[in-house]
Amino acid sequence: MNNGTDGTDMTDTTDRINVADVADVADVIVAGGGPTGMMLAAELRLQGVRVVVLEKDTEPTRQVRALGLHVRSIEVMDQRGLLERFLAAGRQYPAGGFFAGIPKPPPELDTAHGYVLGMPQTTVDRLLAERAGELGAGVRRGCALTGLSQDEEGVTAELADGTRLRSRYLVGCDGGRSTVRKLLGTGFPGEPAKNEWLLGEMEVALPPEKMDAAAAELGTTHLRVRFGPAPHEEGLYRFVVEAGDVAADRTAPPAFEEFTRRLRELAGTDFGVHSPRFLSRFGDATRQAERYRSGRVLLAGDAAHIHPPIGGQGLNLGIQDAFNLGWKLAAEVHGWAPEGLLDSYHAERHPVAADVLENTRAQSVLMSPDPGPQAVRRLLSKLMDFEEVSRYLTEMITATGIRYDFGEGHPLVGRRMRDMELKQGRLYALLHDGRGLLLDRTGRLSVAGWADRIDHVVDTGEEPDVPAVLLRPDGHVAWAGEDQADLLRQVPRWFGAPSGEAGRPGPER
Question: How confident is the model over 414-429, as pLDDT tens digits?
Answer without folding.
Answer: 999 999 999 989 999 9
